[in-house]
Amino acid sequence: MLTFRNRQVGFTLVEIAVVLVIVGLLVGSFIGTFADRVDSTRQSNTKKELEEIKQVLMAYVYTGVVPYALPCPDTDLPPDGLSNDVGGVCTAVVGTLPWMTLGMGQQDDWGTRYSYWVDQNYANSAVGFDLATGIAGSAQINTRINNNVSVMAQNAVAVIFSRGKNGFGGISFEGVNRDVIPALGNGHDDELENDDGDLVFISRFKTDEGVAAAGGAFDDILVWINAYELKAKMVETRSLP
Q1: What is the pLDDT of residues 78-95, one digit of tens each?
Q2: Would residue 169 count as lying in a domain?
Q3: DSSP conformation letters of the chain
Q4: pTM of the model
């Protein structure tokens, strides 16, 4: 007489638990890698657009009319994308990029409007500038390697920058102020340098939140126009002298 033994079908709870742990590790690794790639792409896109904005700013000057001048920042809140001046004098030397005036992108890949600083001597459309215009109001760009801060560039007459992923100090696409940068000594000192209204800016490698580093967490992305770079371009295009 034939007899049949009961056969166990399916997985035990232990086997299921092991599979779930493995799947969880794989999914977690994929999500982390994907997020890093998205961030890297956004940084790359933002750097590329900032370089394009720099070129358009210079073209705005040397293809314009006498008196030659860079556009003023947009100081409206919410921003309307237009250069703000009174009688040719900028209402402020720092604000958001006047994207409507330039016909360029208005925000970075994280949805924060580009910030823009300009030397008043090169943005006064009532007077303009020429080869004799000095550099008294120009900016200095510093960089940092560990605790050492050094000069990267001088004589910058315009600085255009993204506030990066954290958006500290910026204005959102909707015109809302992003989180205020933490006070000096609380982990964002170099980002604070780009928001304190003086003539010194910091451009350096990105440092993530929670990573111990001199100058604190940092993700600002900067480009700038040097006074002599701008004048050389204008001589090349025969706008000056």
Answers
A1: 899 999 999 999 999 999
A2: yes
A3: ---------S--HHHHHHHHHHHHHHHHHHHHHHHHHHHHHHHHHHHHHHHHHHHHHHHHHHTS-SSP-PPPPB--SS--S---EETTEES-SEEE--HHHHT---B-TTSBBPEEEE-GGGT-TTT---TT---TT-EEEEEEETTEEEEEEEEEEEEEEE-TTT-TT-BBTTS-B-PPPPPTTSS-HHHHHTTSSSSEEE----B-TT---TT-SB--EEEEEEHHHHHHHHHHTT---
A4: 0.83
